[in-house]
């Protein structure tokens, strides 16, 4: 494992979606939980951010909070917008969909980033390369579907980081 700006023994992971109130805070909470269960919390820096600024400072969407709590996970982050420095600071920048990915790659090329910028579902064995669909305009069941794909992909991501 290596790191850009953080302690040399830690790996930093930033999850990114559009609003930073649904998918990426869920991924952040799920990944934190998996890392905790693996006894590796002191080896990781884990955050989330959005490419858009509409919800900056807000807690996650209540539907994301509910689905997470149904699975024993507390979401504690407040929304923030991704900034150029994130592309230098984080080892892994993990996008939920291709639009997020394109925006992050544009920022990375302008900042000389060395981050690994990937789609989260590259690490989901059931849908390699797929997107995490935006559940914002749908019902609560969409959040459970998103949760299930996020868990599979976050486990795949952690497995991948541990062998790197
Ligand atoms: P997220 O979902 O990108 O998963 O946080 C969204 C939240 C808010 C909006 C869009 C997507 N919005 O347009 O306000």
Which blocks of ≥5 consecutive residues have pLDDT under 50?
none
**Major pleated sheet:** 4 strands, parallel
- According to DSSP, the number of beta strands is 4
Structural class of the secondary structure composition?
alpha/beta
What's the rounded overall pLDDT mean?
A: 94
Ligand inventory: 4-nitrophenyl phosphate
What share of residues are in beta strands? 5-15%
Number of helices: 5
The largest beta-sheet arranges its strands as 2-1-3-4
Give the radius of gyration. Answer: 14 Å
In CATH, the topology is named Rossmann fold
Order of helices and strands: EHEHHEHEH
Corresponding CATH architecture: 3-Layer(aba) Sandwich
Description:
The chain has 164 residues and is of the alpha/beta class. The chain has a single domain, classed as 3-Layer(aba) Sandwich (Rossmann fold), CATH 3.40.50.2300. The chain has five helices and four strands. It has helices at 23-37, 62-70, 84-89, 98-111, 140-163, and strands at 11-17, 44-50, 92-95, 116-119. It has a four-stranded parallel beta sheet, sandwiched between helices. Strand 3, helix 4 (98-111) and strand 4 form a beta-alpha-beta unit. The protein is globular. The mean pLDDT is 94.
